[in-house]
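Hello,

Our lab assistant flagged a job as stuck in the queue for most of the afternoon. It eventually completed. Since we weren't sure the result was trustworthy after the delay, we are filing this so someone can double-check. Below is the sequence as submitted and the structure that was eventually returned. Let us know if re-running is recommended.
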Amino acid sequence: MLPVTLLFHSPMDELELPPQPVQSQPVQSQQEPEPEPDSESESESELVTTIGRLEVSTPTTTISSAALHVAPMAAVTDRHFRMLARSISPLPVLWTEMTWDKSLLAAGLESPTELEALIGFSAAEHPIVLQLGGCEPESLAQAAALGARRGYDGINLNCGCPAGTRGERQHCYGARLMLQPDLVASCCSAMITAVTEALAPAVVPCDFISVKCRLGVSGREEYQQLAQFVATVAQAGVMYFVVHARQAVLNLHAAANRTIPPLQYDWVFRLISDFPSLHFSINGGVKSLTEAAELMHLGARGVMVGRAVTADPFSLLSSLSTLSGQHVRTRRESLECYLAYANIAQKANWGRGHPETLARKLLAPLVNFFHNTPHAGRWRRAMAAARAARTELRLEDSAVTITRRCLEACGATTPPPTGEMTVLD
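-- returned structure --
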């Protein structure tokens, strides 16, 4: 086996946060509406000034070349969780929650502010991929173009989430799309065309449009059917696939589909062997960087990690920086970066929701921040109590104030008797 440090050596350079959003391609379109006076762009500039030396990664290679990806997870990987992840490490590719194509189009028609509330992200989040859900080529193409013009580093079509079985059009998304390879090919072809036109004259990377899928779905459970799906979609121009190495069982809910169908990594390696011109990353069941490194040694282009990151974000992501030989931020540095972001986001009301709701969303990524430390239990209890304090949550700077009070309550700022450093350092 190759040394883990070599497998996680990053081709990306760390840079100081510039005054404008970092982009891997010149994707800003002249047709993009000017931000409104109260839009998030002003807050973004303030965030740049506040965080100052927050390091970000500027991709010098395409998305599929990255070793580690943080998986798209519903109600988890919003812009706040992604910003916590980026505050810890500049290395992994971050993915959004799945966004419905028609929701994106409706927001775009309403106003630039509503569109930004739905798919906005901070400059420091690069490299970042927008995942779309849908089944109609025209609406997916329009949504992909909007995402590309917003500055995303890649657009992904969700063909992996186990969708409901009732209704032909309403539930034809996610893994159900694997039942119709030709439809997926049509969707991807339309998305590639739309993105190429939206970003012209820039050259669009060959892996800008990607597909995330399963090994199969109820009714199409054989390897040859998976290979046919990949071949059909690849003919439409898709070069990059992220494969969750489990079947999708349509009559099981999402949580059960992450555990009951067995992992079959060997199928992904067969795809790698059968389609040498395509790029494949593996998703599913990866709990550590050691496991990820082993999968990459066996041939995976990259590895996508999901629940392991949410369970212990600091340990896993800081270890990634350690293994790559890059500067490792302390827990204190990472938390201060995130709180600087939270302060700006809360004052600007990013997301345009109720202040109490925004405060809870800003605190949610921090629940497991002290996992596997002596303060973990007290921290989680303090955070749970604070997130229930509705009156305080409505204050303008409640996210920062509550976090600092929870630090004091759990003793995380107090040096241990045996040393001079706290758990934050």
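-- support follow-up --
The delay was a queue issue, not a problem with the job. The result is valid. The chain has 18 helices and ten strands. The longest strand covers residues 209-217.
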